Amino acid sequence: MNKFIFQTKINFKRIVFRNKAFFFFDMLLPIVFYILYTKILVSNVPASYLKAWNEDYLVSMMIYACMLGGIITTANTLLEDEMSNFKLFVTLSPLSNFQYYGSMAIVLITLNLVSSIALTAVAMIVNHVNISIGLLFELISINLLGTILLILIGVLISFAKKPNTVNLLTNLIVFPLAILSGLWWPINIMPTWLQNIGKVMPTYQLSVIDKNILHQTTQHIGPFINLLIWSLIIFLILFIVNKIQKEKGLVTQ
């Protein structure tokens, strides 16, 4: 346990304190989007709808922040570990592969927790969004669970092992996924066929769960099943890709 805690501390220093870009991409960017879409680009939005929009967009940006941290930060950090031979150091140390990824997950989930709290604080100050401590705790808890799926996607992307390929894949996944899921603007303004695709995405289903919590409406089992299915699919792909790379000698564990 002491070794695991020590590794987690090292990862905090490597990912947060030595990577200033995190504060821009993983925290500041969703906040900028939130202010932009709730204070500037709302001139034609009816006042009666604005309150719900400010609340719903807070949920969207929470999930978007989780995507940035869960997918982009995970993929790039693991790739950097591979290229700097830090992963080799872990392989030669008593720390297991499971502990290595577990420690990384704790750091990334904590960063997403900080992002969610920062976004909520901005929403309360800028738009006077009123969320009880209990509801906020439920929202953050659900999003942190959803972050695990996003981290799995980031791990999968890192297996590409080339910086250009990893950057391309993260951009091809994160930004289209955010758009299709209705995180940047309402999904109902898209063509029907795009809506049908977007509603299958795990991030859309996560937003449905969050909005039901926020507005205290009835939850349905469908979104939870969707997230479970996506998690199983990504985990299965991870297992297959890792096995193939082991057979080819591309991974050490």
UniProtKB/TrEMBL annotation:
TM spans, by residue? 21-37, 57-79, 100-125, 131-156, 168-187, 221-241
- InterPro entries recorded: ABC-2_transporter, ABC2_TM, ABC_2_transport
Q: Which UniProt keywords apply?
A: Membrane, Transmembrane, Transmembrane helix
> What superkingdom does the record give?
Bacteria
* Record-level GO cellular component terms: ATP-binding cassette (ABC) transporter complex
One GO MF annotation is: ABC-type transporter activity
* Domain ABC-2 type transporter transmembrane, first and last residues per copy: 12-204
Membrane topology (UniProt): Multi-pass membrane protein
**Which residue positions does the secretion signal occupy?**
none
The cellular location(s) given in this protein's UniProt record come to: Membrane
| Pfam families found in the cross-reference section | ABC2_membrane
What is the protein name given in its UniProt record?
ABC-2 type transporter transmembrane domain-containing protein
Q: Which PANTHER family does the record cross-reference, listed alphabetically? A: DOXORUBICIN RESISTANCE ABC TRANSPORTER PERMEASE PROTEIN DRRC-RELATED
